[in-house]
Amino acid sequence: MESTSHNFKENARRAIADPHIQAAMAKMKVGFTGKRLAATQRLPEFEALRDASRDIKNHSLANLDFYLERYEAKVIESGGQVHWAPTAEDARKAILDICRRVDARTVTKGKSMISEEIALNDHLEAAGMTVVETDLGEYIIQLRKEPPSHIIAPAVHVSKEQVEADFRALHTHLPADRNLSEPTDLVNEARQILRQRYLDADVGITGANFLIAETGTSIIVTNEGNGDLTQSLPRVHIVIASIEKVVPNLEDATTILRVLARSATGQEFSAYTTFSTGPRRAEDPDGPEEYHVILLDNGRSAMLGSDFQDMLRCIRCGACMNHCPVYHAVGGHSYGWVYPGPMGAVLTPNLIGVEEAGHLPNASTLCGRCESVCPVRIPLPRMMRNWREREFERHLTPSSVRSGLWLWAFLACRPVLYRRLAGFGIRILGALGRRKGRFSSLPLAGGWTKYRDLPAPQGRTFQQLWAQKQKNEKRGAVK
Amino acid sequence: MTTARSQILGAVKQALARNTPGDDPQDMREQRLSDPRPGLIPERSRLPHPAQVDLMESMLNELSATVARVSSGDQVPESVSEYLKAKNLPPEIRMAPSRDLQSLPWDGQHLLKISHGPAREPDQVSVTGAFAAVAETGTLMLHSGPEGPTTLNFLPENHIVVLRASQIVGAYEEGWARLRKVFGNGYMPRTVNMISGPSRTGDIEQKIELGAHGPRRLHVIIVEDGDSPA
Q1: Does the pLDDT at position B17 exceed 90?
Q2: Mean local confidence (pLDDT), B9-19
Q3: Which value does ipTM take for this structure?
Q4: CB of A304 within 8 A of CB of B10?
Q5: Chain A nearest C-alpha distance from B146 (Å)
Q6: For position A439, what pLDDT does the model report?
């Protein structure tokens, strides 16, 4: 999809002024965090499982070439096909070729962030196919022609009233006086409409949470069962996965599955964890006749061996954004591309460039909540700092910030000058603000005083106070 | 011309050679593929078998599934009929073509209409067996094959699973061990489904609704066959 990440500030401003988004965020920020906490407290081994999951992903990445080759061999052995795609364009082409060859008219899809990343729907629609998202959240945003605002809850920004309005506007063949006031009614209507789509579909496309080298298996984790209907009813099942999804064996995937649902939704285990290996066997009564895997690189191999290799451990649970105060304030769309929140702030500049997405790593208070809940312990704040350094080095930061930082660095390197100026400044400000005790506006500090008063300094600078304190303590110790 | 495959693998190899201090030894990686070992398994399910059966039942209830216990396979058909009656469902089931299920005394249920095979619209009730069940989280393990059409697990609104107590294990890893025993190492059936409760969604304002696309109801009949797991 087209990125608006460069426009983060404007996007955020709009989101903060949007009552729908603010109401949705107020709801989501308590729901997800509370459920995750309860789930982790119920499993005494949770922290140890996080360590184990981090180690499994590190081992897989350190041997990625080995496991990818073995994975491929196993997929072929089980009758499937592997298509390597260095870029988004290659992946789109591989999928379109398969769909064309089997003369596909309707394509159903399980939720896949990779599919969003390569803007697959637009591509297939342009080729004349009907593309139907089947995850309820994805279906809602497909109707609204919006991108997802969260990696596991794509419609988390939409209220039930908005869904009702969308359904009424687009499901026009249903009676106008039907009741759609409760989520139950909306879920039932979507169920009824999508059911026929599953049966009509020629090709079903899903993502993958893991690929298993031991057996050539792809895994999807869902709650709705939509991914399973998507991949077991049509003639062709296409899996689209990025290369870092591979892990060695079933036990490794199982260990990570124990932290995935708990971190994501606070469930012990998602309703459906499905392991798919090749097409239906000769004696199977159902299942797809063809099984294809698209292995997408699209910037991942360049992250290997870089400062950002740890990001490739990400299992896309969404815990980082569920716990991020900035995400809570601005919502997912402000980030301007596919991946929002802290994981997006680190991943997006890797995939579409720091020129386009350099704002995102700045949209953080570096409070560290994301790292503290990440099931595979990705050092997200450290990597956001890395991006900030690169942004500065490449002269991408605005000139006001650069000159401000330059001035500060100049003074900070000259302690005598710094102390003098600070002492002088504080006396002036103290004198000017003596009457009211605060400033409601101040030149160069408009960003602060627009929203709150700045207290007028009283007495001396911090350094002066500190020096005095040290002196007093020394005197006390001597006595 | 470099192929896409060699382009990606080449880039990966080059990146790893640059910064990783040497690969793990080849035989260690091979062993991870040919002889997988369980990692950390939570204590929760390390219980005597009868307690694992109880844990399975309580986890299923927690997941909004329902459970009936019968003391022998002979009581399964009656239990199915009772369930249909209690839920006000028509006496008609689509059953997995499994020898074990077919060997049960269905003849006693005169009103029950039974057909076998993959699910079709508008089948309302499916009855399947299971391969194993994991007490740790109340998770059923089913796999595709001549006796297990996958569509039965997802298309009908009501899914009834006949589970033998001897199929209940503590942790997922024990399920994998059983699967390897049946199929051999490194082989998987087309589909293995781990099912934990009925279909659900929280996509509208995070309110959990059952029956998003898959079954609205999951009912498990545990047959206490007296055998502890093999």
Answers
A1: no
A2: 89
A3: 0.97
A4: no
A5: 5
A6: 87
pLDDT tens readout for residues B172-203? 999 999 999 999 999 999 999 999 999 999 99
Same domain, B27 and B133: no
Neighboring chain A residues of B198 at a CB cutoff of 8 Å: 271
- How do beta strands B92-95 and B113-116 pair? parallel
Task: Please report the pLDDT score of residue B230 as a whole number.
Answer: 44
Instruction: Find, among A320, A327, A387, the residue nearest to A353 by Cα.
Output: A387
Q: How far apart are CA B42 and CA A43, in angstroms?
A: 8
What ranges do the domains of chain A cover? Answer: 1-42+319-397, 51-302, 417-478
Are residues B127 and B185 both part of a single domain?
A: yes
Shared domain for B31 and B61, answered yes or no, is no
> Would the CB atoms of B213 and A254 count as touching at under 8 Å?
no
Contact A286 B214 (CB under 8 A): no
Whether B20 has a pLDDT exceeding 70, the answer reads no
Give, in degrees to the nearest 5, the angle at Cα A241 between A63 and B152: 120
- Put simply, whether A252 touches B (Cβ < 8 Å) is yes
- Whether residues B205 and A27 touch (CB distance < 8 A) is answered with yes
Cβ-Cβ contacts under 8 Å, A164 against chain B: none
Which of A198, A224, A284 is opposite residue B200, by nearest beta carbon? A224
Q: Least CA distance to B190: which residue of chain A? A: A277
Q: Do A285 and B205 make contact, defined as CB atoms within 8 angstroms?
A: no
**Min Cα–Cα distance to chain B from A429, Å:** 49
CATH code of the domain in which B91 resides:
3.40.50.10420
Given a contact cutoff of 8 angstroms between Cβ atoms, the answer to whether A325 and A365 are in contact is yes
Instruction: Give the ranges where B69-129 is alpha helix by DSSP (H).
Output: 76-86, 99-102
What's the CATH class of domain A51-302? alpha beta
Whether residue A194 and residue B213 make contact (CB cut-off 8 A), yes or no, is yes
Q: Which domain holds residue B172?
A: 47-223
Best of A63, A160, A289 to disrupt the B interface by mutation (most B CBs within 10 Å)? Answer: A63
The two most distant CA atoms of chain B are separated, in Å, by 72
Is the residue at B111 inside a domain? Answer: yes
Return the residue of A nearest to B13 by Cα: A65
> Where does residue A454 rank: exposed (0-12), middle (13-18), buried (19+ CB within 10 A)?
middle
pTM: 0.93
Mean pLDDT of A435-443: 84
pLDDT at B22: 54
Instruction: List all residues 6 or more positions away from A445 whose beta carbon is below 8 Å from its beta carbon.
Output: A439, A454
- H-helix or E-strand containing B69? strand B66-70
- Contact call for B146 and A285, based on CB within 8 A: yes
Listed in sequence order, the residues at least 6 apart from A128 whose beta carbon sits closer than 8 Å to its beta carbon are: none
Any domain includes B183: yes
The SS3 of residue A185 is helix
Number of domains chain B is built from: 2
Mean pLDDT of A58-74: 97
Token pair listed for B210: 């059952």
DSSP for A109-169, written as a single string: E---HHHHHTTHHHHHHHTT-EEEE-SHHHHHHHHHT---SSSS-TTTT--HHHHHHHHHH
